[in-house]
Amino acid sequence: MKIAIAGSGALGCGFGYHLQKSGEEVTLLDNWADHIQVVSENGLTITVNGKEDNLKMNMCKPHELNEEMDAIFVFTKSMGLKPMMESIDHIIGADTKVICLLNGLGHLKTLEHYVDKKNIIMGTTVWTAGIDAPGITHFNGQGPVELQNSDPSEKEGALVIVDMLQRSGLNGVYSDNVNYTTWRKACVNGTMNALCALLDTTIEKVFSTSTIDSMLSGIVTEFATVARLQDDIKLDVEETITYLKNLADKVGAHYPSMHQDLANNRPTEIDFLNGAVAEASKRFGVEAPYCQKVTDLIHAKEDILGIPSASNS
């Protein structure tokens, strides 16, 4: 299968590596010139769960790929989805499957402007990753990649992608309610990502603080309220907090992506996470003080560092 990875940062490289190792024809797409040059000249150097490897991979800028793909995995930042879709429109055919594994909320509406709904597969992943230098990444985890086709009548298309992920070691599973897992993943990023970015530390250290229970309860309760009002998704607050703590035990040494963004002077995805919850709460006439304050603090930190926010970039 001809596969493009649209947005080949840490997670995109990890998925592309596994898919090519399993026999798929993969092209990494990105706009970071130094990253492209190193991968093109030296191959991708990647450490997967502590084991280092190097793999020769095709990599170029989106406009430089000039053939239709069978499948495209989208791994941009939330604010980069629209410009990426515009730049890869020429490689999307009538039957090209587009698999969205982005963090954040509201991406289906964006994708529907560029792709027939029958070809959009939404999903979530709990794999973690990071870039150590151009062309050098790490990729950790073993959890599921949950997928569901946006058009219920097109389940078979999603099952083909699920099978491919299983064969590549990425643990694909079909979900009958990916909206639920999307909201729960948003809770992961709205707590772990945001708090690690604000406190400038790892997941493990954030979750060992004396105030973690209060912070988790406040943020998750607000996510659960908006999920119910907006999408009729029922998130159990206590179950979600238990899930977060169990996940933190597994990936505690990790600096999540929002922390990495600030460390590298890049805008964060906060407006598509806590910010989205805070904005939606206003429409529904409910309060979301935790999410609003977290959003304000992240934007304040962006301002201090001289980073344009996602809404202004």
TrEMBL record:
Pathway: Cofactor biosynthesis; (R)-pantothenate biosynthesis; (R)-pantoate from 3-methyl-2-oxobutanoate: step 2/2. Keywords: NADP, Oxidoreductase, Pantothenate biosynthesis. One of its GO terms (cellular component) is cytoplasm. Residues 3-150 form the Ketopantoate reductase N-terminal domain. It catalyses: (R)-pantoate + NADP(+) = 2-dehydropantoate + NADPH + H(+). Its EC number is 1.1.1.169. Residues 177-302 form the Ketopantoate reductase C-terminal domain. It is an enzyme of class 1 (oxidoreductase). InterPro entries: 6-PGluconate_DH-like_C_sf, 6PGD_dom2, ApbA, Ketopantoate_reductase, KPA_reductase, KPR_N, NAD(P)-bd_dom_sf. One of its GO terms (molecular function) is 2-dehydropantoate 2-reductase activity. GO terms for biological process: pantothenate biosynthetic process. It comes from the Bacteria. Gene3D superfamilies: N-(1-d-carboxylethyl)-l-norvaline Dehydrogenase, domain 2, NAD(P)-binding Rossmann-like Domain. Catalyzes the NADPH-dependent reduction of ketopantoate into pantoic acid. Belongs to the ketopantoate reductase family. This is 2-dehydropantoate 2-reductase.
